Amino acid sequence: MTAPHKVLAGIVGHAVGHPIAVVAARTGLSRDVLRVWERRYGAVEPMRSPGGQRRYSDEHVHRFQLLAAATRHGRSISAVADLGTEALARMAVEDEAALPDGALVSDSAVIRNIDAAMEAIRALDGAALDATLRRASAREGVPWFVDRLVPALMRTVGDGWVAGRLTIAHEHLASAAVIALLLEPIRTPPAASTPPRLVVATPSTERHAAGAAASAAAASMEGWAVVYLGPDVPCFDISGAAAATDARAVALSIVYVEDRAKVVAEVRALRDQLQPKVPIFLGGAAGSGIAADLRGDGRGRGITLCESTAQFRTKLAHAALSR
């Protein structure tokens, strides 16, 4: 009998499903690893095109992403390959929450690439920085780049600016390079004919856009069509964009807050203006504090805090199936 989490294999039309190259790009796993997990551990049962090529559904891609997250957190593939997708999703959230402070920079690949990126940033060499980031993304995979390298790099740049080792020029050059690379995936149309839409922005007065761009890239990897509005957008413009595009959800990134009460009021107003069925995903370094304020006055319903892009992707996957 087929395990509950597996999709039965079959013959599908030429245009249906994703080829293995797309799965590798979206998961950061090599083709060899994907084949081993499939054949040896039965992680998924791919479909087949009329010509016999493997084709993978969005559910297959999501399972591989969750399995990759589990192995990154130290679990063996043999121990998790038979788990259902919902169990894997819960495990991913729990594993991410259990990471100690500073765990992002414990990865040797993160440290190595941060060193190379910081050398380019200190020299104000945008071309070298872009080349470094692109090599890292190609070598380690887009999910790793979005989930691991970008947060650690931007935190390192922020710490350098606070300590006086970097100037605003250095910070702006780093942000511009990271954002440009993160936004490239959203320019590729999603594979699904009617993908769910997500509006991504930062609220009024928040000008740090790297977190929003990372959210946009993460959503694109999950197959969402992203409407990226950028930084410092008033709540009525965000809600207007959501209504005009029939967005399934809205994602806000809040990194730095000058006027906490104003930002809380902006998010509260946005929640009131959106349809009740449209959730707000809230992330960024200041997101937890804003979410706590909203819960404190009973206005947190329909607002979900995401403390990492990996967690955000998991919650997006559930949101895509909930309507």
Average pLDDT over all residues: 84
Name the structural class.
Answer: alpha/beta
Low-confidence blocks of residues: 4-15, 102-106
Distance from N terminus to C terminus (CA atoms, Å) equals 30 Å
Residue share in helix: 40-55%
Order of helices and strands: HHEEHHHHHHHEHEHEHEHEH
Count of DSSP E strands?
A: 7
Determine the number of helices (DSSP H or I, runs of at least 4 residues).
14
Characterize the structure shown:
- By secondary structure, this protein is an alpha/beta fold.
- It has 14 helices and seven strands.
- It has helices at residues 20-27, 31-39, 58-72, 77-80, 85-97, 108-122, 126-140, 142-162, 168-182, 210-221, 235-245, 260-273, 287-296, 309-321; strands spanning 47-48, 54-55, 197-203, 225-233, 249-253, 280-283, 303-305.
- Helix 12 (260-273) links the parallel strand 5 and strand 6.
- The relative contact order is 0.09.
- The model is unreliable at 4-15 and 102-106 (pLDDT under 50).
Short account of what is shown:
With 323 residues, the protein is α/β, with parallel strands linked by helices. The chain has 14 helices and seven strands.
Keywords:
10% strand
